[in-house]
Amino acid sequence: MARIDELAGRVQQLATERDDLKRERDGLAARLEETEEDLAAARTSLREMIRRDNT
Prior knowledge:
Number of helices: 1
Shape: rod-shaped
């Protein structure tokens, strides 16, 4: 019985770690998406500045 309790506790611990990692992954994915959008906007702005300066 002690071994079953030990394994059940470990399963719970791993499930908690998994859930924490999923939340962290989701947060990082959201930050990455925001950063990619910012990069695209900066590129567009830079292109517009270059075009203005060349005309």
